[in-house]
Design brief:
By secondary structure, the protein is an alpha/beta fold. Helices cover 46% and strands 13% of the residues. The protein has eleven helices and nine strands. Strands 1-2-3-5-7-8-9 form a seven-stranded parallel β-sheet. It has a two-stranded antiparallel sheet with strand order 4-6. It starts with a helix and ends with a helix.
Length: 294
């Protein structure tokens, strides 16, 4: 972790980290000292509920009550850890909870388990909100929490206002969603949201650099974040598998800041009137003249 945090200080445009509990960090005092040493904040504590062998077939939705309780305990402990290091949220992506085949499970029972387990975890230490991150698949063939709208249904069934949704741009893209539409949907709900940025070819969660495959969709995504006054971290969930680590993450910074600054300069009132006016060719002319002039 010392090496990871030191590397963070060499990447332009970053001042916070999302850290994984309990496999990446577990000692709050050591973590606090490292954060102070490198002058870093915490964007979120990401709690992993898929790595334990007993979670392989589902932790939060296991038929075994002891296993469900262990998964909930992981999230509660992550909240305790977050409080001790000064983090303001915990995010959890229930990747082991899903199915592969027709007649693989009782869907209603699995949903009931999700509501019960996330309710128990979310109601604990509510000053540290729990954010649910959705993903279409991996590690399961289909995850139960696979879309933004289903995530919203889950939170509505739970009914705890101190919970939120993590919107991962890449998960949304390869799940067949429009990430900007998801932002609009959730921003108009009663729940907060938190953002992971990356890109892919809409076939898999490749975690490429932002806007490298879907430029205009990323522009629209940032536009709606501005429209709804998003003021939390844009966390780079990006995998530099074949490229320089620093260069990859700085590409995210450069492109995001460039688009963000450009969007701040446009006439929002005029653009909104064009968007709502129904004549897309006129809207496209404005995009050409004012956004594609990057």
């Amino acid at each position: 972790m010392d090496q990871k945090f030191e590397l963070m200080t060499e990447i332009d445009g970053y001042d916070g980290v999302e850290i994984v509990y309990p496999y990446e960090v577990s000692d709050p005092q050591d973590t606090r000292e490292l954060l102070k040493k490198y002058d870093l904040s915490v964007a979120a504590v990401n709690v992993n509920v898929k790595a334990e062998p007993e979670f392989r077939n589902g932790g939060l939705t296991s038929h075994n009550k002891d296993i469900r309780e262990k998964a909930v305990r992981f999230i509660k402990e992550a909240k305790d850890f977050a409080a001790e290091i000064g983090a303001d949220k915990v995010t959890c992506c229930p990747l082991g909870d899903g199915y592969e085949f027709n007649f693989n499970c009782d869907y209603a029972q699995m949903w009931k388990y999700l509501v019960e387990t996330f309710s128990e975890a979310g109601s604990y230490l509510t000053e540290i909100p729990l954010f649910v991150e959705y993903k279409p698949s991996e590690t399961r063939g289909r995850c139960f929490v696979d879309t933004g709208s289903k995530s919203l249904c889950l939170l509505n069934d739970i009914g705890i206002e101190q919970m939120g949704i993590t919107i991962d741009y890449g998960h949304s893209k390869y799940g067949g969603e429009n990430p900007a539409e998801v932002v609009s949907l959730i921003a108009n709900s009663r729940y907060p949201y938190y953002i992971h940025i990356n890109d892919n070819n809409a076939k898999w969660d490749w975690d490429y650099m932002v806007a490298s495959h879907n430029f205009l969709e990323y522009v629209e995504f940032l536009y709606y974040l501005q429209k709804y006054n998003y003021d939390d971290y844009l966390t780079s969930d990006t995998s530099p598998t074949r490229w320089d680590i620093i260069g990859t993450f700085e590409a995210n910074t450069r492109m995001t800041n460039k688009i963000w600054t450009k969007l701040l300069s446009i006439d929002k009132e005029k653009f909104e009137s064009l968007i709502s006016g129904g004549d897309y060719l006129e809207t496209w002319k404005y995009i050409e003249a004012n956004i594609l002039s990057l």
